[in-house]
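Here is one chain, start to finish.
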Amino acid sequence: MQELSIVVDNKVGLHARPAAMFVQTASKFKSDINISCRDTKDDKLRTANAKSILGILTLGVFQGMEIHIKAEGDDEQEAIKTLGELVKNNFGE
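Its structure:
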């Protein structure tokens, strides 16, 4: 299992287009990939399947939030590296 914590700097967070890019990228990997973050209202940890657009949008990730990406499977290292770079590079914006 590989994990990464990273802050989302994209000005719109993980909404619509960035979320779609994240799901599209995650779906290229065989590994099970989850994304989680703390809810700012009640501080509960929320987790979603990184290959589900609805799941990611439900998390409500906005700029400045820390997300945790966890991958488990044959290509877990490459998945974490690629998704981390996507977030770090502000989804190409």
